[in-house]
């Protein structure tokens, strides 16, 4: 069987804020036996426009993503919410041609952890991390893509890792994209409950599968003076959690 | 145009727009068939009984403390008076009951004083339910000349007689009898209660705080 | 806790709500319990997912044939002896009800909780007509004493603590309750309201279902107040939205299973009552007259637009119990009749988007509401549809519009975008101390309460351009 050809969708947040998640994703895909390309013509999936009601703006970006990625066997990205947006592209087009292309891309777009587990049936080998961790289910990944068991199953193979259940793991952290800056007071009240739950686990490390949520949780934890360190799950699986966590200086 | 005509026209207009500009006129029989098809395979969309025998399932449902119901099995109508006085004694209530005009209750016997109608602050009243529902532990009453609805609502203690032969398995089995179209058909499941103050469950909000089922046969 | 001054502004109302620690406790108690109980009830109902699909299909079928069912219901209700009235909007509906009351020379009117009654402004309309209105649902009784509106569609007084209720009852009830424990307070309300039930001239209820093939209206309550409001008075009035129709009692049962489990975690409510016409000849009790007011108020419009699926709503309240925003700010902050996710979809329909623009935006789109909705309303999609309308009608404020415009312009030009990131990242990094940014222009919404991780020195794309798949190391 020839190697599946992957177009890596880095996501704009990972691109600018934490490239290491991109490298981790790339590494994991290669370990799982994929051929990975990073198309230069990618920027953003269009979520900010889509969630603000700018359907035209969202559709324009969707066209760009479709054109850039439709030639690959799969589009894979390290974010449930971006992949969720890509999966929703068909709703943006009334033109049957574009709609078809959107549907085709949607059908082969995957979030990295779900892809490794469900499509590639891959398990990490020889990865270790001596730490206690807790895991937050990012909403889009959980409810739009059904990412729930996969990250937990993958993390089980990491040696030395102690998983601690998080109370309200499936409850939104209050990020919500532009929501968190449009309604900062409400967002803060929500994230403060999340961080209290995180603190209650006593875990060294918080993991999640979406950088937006992670930045929100890490940023609030840091402001509260908590010592919890935050990583994307892919970083741990790729053995890249030995360096600085989100917000830590290199 | 009247409000009625306006609303129906607006609904049709909405249906047309929502269905791409066409309003397919369908025969009532067709609509009925589609509605019926939506209830096919009821077992797929309803819970199964706690135990296959409806009477046994009904008894088990009534034993659920959340319902706030007590239940006595009574051998037959002849044993009813004894079961009733037993309940009243257990609750230290006088042998006095508000009853409906149902002749089966006139035989309650010399030991129990019966009267009608039910007073607003009645201590205890008794009714005969037409059916019981095993799925939920409900009893059903239909308003009638000999079935005052208020007897089930006003007293502090409501005693309700139901025959084992009248226990239906599911809510859907009762629905068949809705075609009798009484003024009121009331499915009563446990005692009245409220959680309106800080979520605390308090029994006897407006209706009876005590419901006692007398299951005959 | 006094009744807070209601601001015109959503953000201000939310701010006030967040500042009230009592409110947070009260909300958490009620919604927390509701969440736990619902989960247990669903756990014991393995057929739930299949039942949801069917429930949604039943409602869709009704809406797709709404004209048919309205006419069938009207025919059967009339045949059973009820008077059927039609109201295009809230004002018309309230006017019909008050007219019936005044023509009957009603002095006391009892009301069994109905959100539609709130929607059409019935409490005010009755008061304006000089009719004594007695709310009989315990929670409605509490908020009537407090002169408030419901803050939840199932527990209207959930924002009130036990101490608040005690204070209200001690002031109003004659004689006052023996103690401030919930049991004595409920007993006291029972005593006070019992007299009213028996003295009322008119009883008003809502309807959870309108049964087309029998002409019956269905109410569900746990307290028994609907039966006590509708049996003793001479006249029973039902107000109901036109979307409440179901083809038959069997269909009502299928939806009832979903409704009660989702609302309170029970299997059925203590009282499920089908009201079909007035008292029959010889009946032991019941009203002489029954009136049913069918209310449109924006619903027929929804039949034809992108909000049609919202007409499936059976008003169970599960979406708000599971909403992170509702659980922080409570119901009053939403400013409409209906709060929470379903309210955020419905309020713009009822009050106009201009007056409620914030509601569809004040949502993280986390999707938990639609995950629990027993009739699978795609609430997230509907909220986004309002955002589209808001954007298209230029109601989105300048800064957001401009910001997104610039972003979109760059994002559609990958080279420009990557060049821009290369320039912007070092600038942003200037605001950082250690790995974090505590303050940065234009980022106050974020940095007021949380730190922002310092961005990378070089973007992934620029690193990849340099090092290829092997990466920097
Ligand atoms: S939208 Fe769904 S969950 Fe919310 S009240 Fe309506 S039926 Fe219940």
Strand content of chain A: 5-15%
Terminal CA distance of chain B reads 59 Å
Structural class of chain B: alpha/beta
What is the helix tally of chain A? 13
Give the oligomeric state.
heterotrimer
The geometry of chain B reads as elongated
Q: What would CATH call the homologous superfamily of the largest domain in chain B? A: NagB/RpiA/CoA transferase-like
- Are any ligands bound, and if so which? iron/sulfur cluster
User: For the CA atoms, what is the radius of gyration of chain A?
Assistant: 18 Å
Helical proportion of chain A, percent range: 40-55%
**Rg of chain B, Cα atoms, Å:** 22 Å
Classified by CATH, the class of the largest domain in chain B is Alpha Beta
Largest sheet of chain B: 4 strands, parallel
For the biggest sheet of chain A, the summary is: 4 strands, parallel
Mean pLDDT of chain B: 94
End-to-end gap of chain A? 41 Å
Low-confidence stretches of chain A: none
Q: How many E-type strands of chain B?
A: 12
The shape of chain A, in one word, is globular
Helix/strand order of chain B, N-terminal first: HHHEHEHEEEEHEEHEEEE
What is the largest interface, and how many residues per chain?
Answer: B-C, 81 and 105 residues
Fold and architecture overview:
The complex is a heterotrimer of chains A (250), B (217) and C (473). By secondary structure, chain A is an alpha/beta fold. Chain A folds into two domains: 5-118, no CATH class; 125-237, Rossmann fold. Chain A has 13 helices and eight strands. In chain A, strands 2-1-3-4 form a four-stranded parallel β-sheet, with helices on both faces. In chain A, α12 links the parallel β7 and β8 (229-232). The model of chain A has no long low-confidence stretch (mean pLDDT 96). Chain B is α/β, with parallel strands linked by helices and 217 residues long. Chain B has two domains: 3-40, no CATH class; 48-216, NagB/RpiA/CoA transferase-like (Rossmann fold). In chain B, the strands form four sheets. A four-stranded parallel β-sheet of chain B has the order 1-12-7-4. Chain B has a four-stranded mixed β-sheet with strand order 8-5-6-9. With 473 residues, chain C is α/β, with parallel strands linked by helices. Helices cover 51% and strands 11% of the residues of chain C. Chain C has 24 helices and 13 strands. In chain C, the strands form three sheets. In chain C, strands 1-10-7-4-2-3 form a six-stranded parallel β-sheet, with helices on both faces. Chain C has a four-stranded mixed β-sheet with strand order 8-5-6-9. Chain C has a three-stranded antiparallel β-sheet with strand order 11-12-13, with no helix packed on it. Chain C is elongated, with a radius of gyration of 26 Å. Classes of the chains: A alpha/beta (250), B alpha/beta (217), C alpha/beta (473). β9 (184-188) of chain B pairs antiparallel with β9 (271-275) of chain C, so a sheet runs across the interface. The complex binds iron/sulfur cluster. Residues 262, 313-319, 342, 373-375, 377 of chain C line the site of iron/sulfur cluster (SF4).
């Amino acid at each position: 069987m020839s190697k599946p050809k992957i177009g890596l969708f880095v996501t704009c947040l990972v691109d600018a804020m934490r490239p290491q998640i991109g490298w981790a994703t790339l590494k994991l895909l290669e370990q799982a036996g994929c051929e990975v390309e990073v198309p230069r013509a990618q920027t953003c999936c269009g979520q900010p426009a889509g969630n603000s009601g700018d359907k035209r703006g969202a559709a324009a970006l969707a066209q760009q993503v479709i054109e850039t990625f439709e030639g690959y066997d799969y589009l894979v990205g390290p974010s449930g919410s971006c992949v969720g947006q890509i999966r929703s592209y068909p709703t943006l087009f009334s033109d049957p041609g574009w709609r078809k292309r959107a549907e085709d891309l949607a059908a082969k777009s995957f979030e990295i952890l779900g892809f490794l587990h469900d499509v590639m049936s891959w398990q990490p080998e020889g990865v270790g991390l001596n730490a206690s961790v807790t895991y937050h289910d990012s909403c889009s990944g959980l409810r739009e893509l059904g990412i729930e068991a996969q990250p937990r199953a993958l993390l089980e193979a990491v040696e030395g890792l102690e998983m601690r259940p998080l109370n309200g793991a499936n409850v939104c952290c209050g990020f919500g994209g532009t929501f968190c800056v449009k309604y900062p007071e409400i967002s803060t009240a929500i994230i403060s409950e999340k961080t209290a739950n995180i603190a209650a686990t006593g875990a060294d490390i918080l993991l999640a599968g979406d950088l937006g949520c992670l930045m929100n949780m890490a940023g609030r934890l840091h402001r509260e003076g908590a010592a919890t360190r935050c990583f994307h799950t892919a970083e741990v699986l790729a053995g890249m959690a030995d360096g600085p966590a989100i917000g830590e200086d290199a | 145009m009247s409000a009625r005509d306006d609303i129906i026209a607006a609904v049709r207009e909405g249906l047309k727009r929502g269905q791409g500009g066409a309003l397919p006129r369908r025969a009532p029989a067709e609509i009925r068939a589609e509605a019926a098809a939506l209830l096919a395979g009821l077992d797929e969309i309803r819970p199964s009984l706690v135990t296959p025998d409806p009477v046994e399932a009904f008894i088990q449902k009534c034993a659920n403390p959340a319902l706030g119901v007590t239940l006595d099995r009574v051998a037959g109508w002849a044993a009813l008076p004894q079961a009733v006085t037993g309940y009243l004694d257990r609750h230290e209530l006088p042998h006095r009951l508000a009853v409906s005009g149902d002749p089966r209750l006139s035989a309650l016997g010399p030991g129990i004083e019966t009267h009608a109608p039910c007073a607003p602050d009645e201590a205890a009243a008794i009714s005969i339910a037409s059916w019981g529902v095993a799925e939920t532990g409900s009893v059903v009453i239909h308003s009638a000349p000999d079935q005052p609805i208020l007897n089930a609502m006003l007293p502090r203690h409501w005693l309700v007689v139901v025959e084992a032969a009248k226990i239906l398995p599911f809510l859907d089995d009762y629905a068949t009898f809705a075609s009798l179209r009484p003024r009121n058909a009331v499915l009563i499941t446990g005692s009245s209660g409220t959680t309106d103050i800080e979520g605390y469950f308090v029994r006897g909000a407006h209706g009876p705080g005590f419901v006692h089922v007398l299951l005959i046969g | 806790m006094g009744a807070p001054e209601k601001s015109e502004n959503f953000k201000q109302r939310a701010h006030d709500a967040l500042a009230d620690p009592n409110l947070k406790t009260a909300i958490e108690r009620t919604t927390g319990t509701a969440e736990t109980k619902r989960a247990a009830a669903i756990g014991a109902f393995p057929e739930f997912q299949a039942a949801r699909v069917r429930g949604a299909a039943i409602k869709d079928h009704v809406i797709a044939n709404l004209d048919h069912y309205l006419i069938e219901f009207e025919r059967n209700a009339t045949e059973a002896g009820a008077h059927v009235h039609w109201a295009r909007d809230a004002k018309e509906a309230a006017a019909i009800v008050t007219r019936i009351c005044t023509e009957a020379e009603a002095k006391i009117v009892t009301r069994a909780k109905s959100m539609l009654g709130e929607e059409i402004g019935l409490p005010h309309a009755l008061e304006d007509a000089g009719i004594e209105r007695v709310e009989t649902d315990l929670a409605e009784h509490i908020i009537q004493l407090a002169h408030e509106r419901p803050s939840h569609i199932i527990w209207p007084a959930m924002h009130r603590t036990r101490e608040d209720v005690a204070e209200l009852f001690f002031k109003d009830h004659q004689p006052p309750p023996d103690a401030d424990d919930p049991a004595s307070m409920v007993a006291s309300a029972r005593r006070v309201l019992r007299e009213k039930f028996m003295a009322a001239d008119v009883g008003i209820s809502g309807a959870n279902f309108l049964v087309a093939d029998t002409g019956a209206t269905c109410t569900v309550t746990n307290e028994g107040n609907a039966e006590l409001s509708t049996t003793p008075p001479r006249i029973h009035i039902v107000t109901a939205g036109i979307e409440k129709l179901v083809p038959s009692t069997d269909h009502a049962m299928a939806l009832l299973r979903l409704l009660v489990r989702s609302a309170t975690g029970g299997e059925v409510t203590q009282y499920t009552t089908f009201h079909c016409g007035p008292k029959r000849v010889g009946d032991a009790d019941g009203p002489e007259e029954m009136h049913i007011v069918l209310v449109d108020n924006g619903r027929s419009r929804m039949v034809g637009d992108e909000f049609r699926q919202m007409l499936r709503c059976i008003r169970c309240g599960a979406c708000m119990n599971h909403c992170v925003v509702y659980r922080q700010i409570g119901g009053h902050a939403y400013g409409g009749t209906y709060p929470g996710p379903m309210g955020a979809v419905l309020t713009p329909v009822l009050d106009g988007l201009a007056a409620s623009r914030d509601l569809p935006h004040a949502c993280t789109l986390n999707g938990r509401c639609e995950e629990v909705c027993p009739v699978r309303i795609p609430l997230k999609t509907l909220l986004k549809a309002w955002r589209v309308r808001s954007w298209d009608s230029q109601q989105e404020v300048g800064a957001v519009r401009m910001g997104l415009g610039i972003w979109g312009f760059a994002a559609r030009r990958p080279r420009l975008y990557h060049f821009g990131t290369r320039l912007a990242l070092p600038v942003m990094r200037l605001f950082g101390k250690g790995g974090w940014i505590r303050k940065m222009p234009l980022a106050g919404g974020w940095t007021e309460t949380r730190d922002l991780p310092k961005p990378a020195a070089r973007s992934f794309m620029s690193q990849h351009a340099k090092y290829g798949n092997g990466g920097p190391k």
